[in-house]
Amino acid sequence: MKKIAIIFGTRPDTIKLAPIIKALQKEKKLFKVITIATSQHRAMLDQVLDVFSIKPDYDLNIMKKRQTLAEITKNIIVNLDKVLEKESPDMVIVQGDTSTTCIGALAAFYRKIPVCHAEAGLRTDNIYNPFPEEMNRRLTSVITALHLPPTDLSALALKKEHIPASKIFVTGNTVIDALKFVVKNNYKFAQSEISNFLKRKGKHVLLTMHRRENLGLPMTAACLAIKRLANEFPQHSFIFPVHLNPAVRDVVYPILGNLENILLIEPLKYSDFSNLLSRMNFIITDSGGVQEEGPSLGKPVLVLRETTERPEAIKFGTAKLVGLNEEKIYRNAKKLFTDQEFYNKMAKSVNPYGDGKAAERTVYAIKKYFGIKSNVISEFKPKKSK
Ligand code: UD1
Ligand code: UDP
């Protein structure tokens, strides 16, 4: 019996670890699963835990309003160390690129516990963009014993950093497993604000923004572009679940707060958000996870970033980098509203990121790591798009 500690704490790492938690918990004879929430996020984490019915064994409860990176780091490492000392797991699993990921890996390293990194190998090669995520991923990779990149491209990035192929297994991204778990054709939205929004005539666009490097002027430019679009296309509507970071809200509410065809709402629980995504015409976002979910649902994604560590959907043509330039965002969104050919070219359902079996492959890779015999499962390969 191997004891596996799974560390999570923000909205995206928890959504993406939920399928792995469930899959490992099914293997009762082989694994004892310990779930540790740093709670770097609070309300946005609790929403996810609720949807997936996860009750963490430990809750470090570290979130404070407007917390700095240094405070997050300090509070996670000190509190996590106590849990790792007490539990002494055989492996720690972290996911992605948040502070919880990187500091979780570091805390495990200090106790000489091997680390398994899900969603490994994403790179922009610019340590300040996304900030601090690119560095979080790189530092995590140096510590990691078992690397689980979602795609061949992310596996290649790891090999370029001299990580041996024997320590790498391509799983696909568990966000697609999570998406398949919650998206339903006949999904009913409990909030009347959402069902009323969907009843509005015209096209529907979903927005999200939260990246640290976009706070302030870049985010202001993006909001001004949306305002211009909302004024020019009153027949179409925008829905924007606004991240709880006060630095995001300080920018978004003054610019977009009083427009008839823009609905600003609180962050949505994952089942509402992903079912809403599946009903949109297109998406404008700076999110990592939403860049993966949009293409899977056949939705064009305009990416509010200067660079992306998720180039696969850009290559397939479903996502387009539009940066934080007001004019460029405005022009591309306008084209999606008005140019059907341009829209159709982008609205292809492609799945470069996963096939819903990433958690199964993760469990297989962990068994292999510990020398546990099991049926062979092959690495993830995306289906060719037509
Ligand atoms: C964090 C991650 C980022 C990820 C994002 C997903 C780091 C450094 N950043 O960024 O990689 O893309 O989560 O959303 O790990 N807040 C609340 N309630 C919540 C959550 C946040 O009030 O439930 C507020 C707090 O004031 C907090 C602020 O948002 O200080 C920022 O949270 P923080 O975790 O520092 O960074 P995010 O921008 O959320
Ligand atoms: N998401 C959600 N509710 C929302 C907005 C996003 O559940 O109101 C989900 C979304 O489906 C995706 C994840 O949160 O799976 C992305 O999180 P976020 O954009 O905060 O972080 P990132 O992926 O950029 O790290």
Explain what you see.
- The mean pLDDT is 97.
- This protein has 386 residues and is α/β, with parallel strands linked by helices.
- Helices cover 45% and strands 13% of the residues.
- The strands form 2 sheets. The protein has a 6-stranded parallel sheet, with helices on both faces.
- The chain binds uridine-diphosphate-N-acetylglucosamine (UD1) and uridine-5'-diphosphate (UDP).
Compile the SSE list and pairings.
Blueprint: E1 2-8, H1 11-26, E2 31-37, H2 43-51, E3 58-59, H3 69-87, E4 91-95, H4 99-110, E5 115-118, H5 133-143, E6 146-148, H6 152-160, H7 174-182, H8 192-199, E7 204-208, H9 217-232, E8 237-241, H10 246-256, E9 262-265, H11 270-277, E10 282-285, H12 288-296, E11 301-303, H13 312-316, E12 319-321, H14 326-338, H15 340-346, H16 358-369
Parallel strand pairs: 1-2, 1-4, 2-3, 4-5, 5-6, 7-8, 7-10, 8-9, 10-11, 11-12
Helix pairs in contact: 1-2, 1-7, 1-16, 3-4, 4-5, 9-10, 9-14
Uridine-5'-diphosphate is lined by residues 11-12, 15, 175, 208, 210, 241, 267-268, 270, 273-274, 287-290, 293.
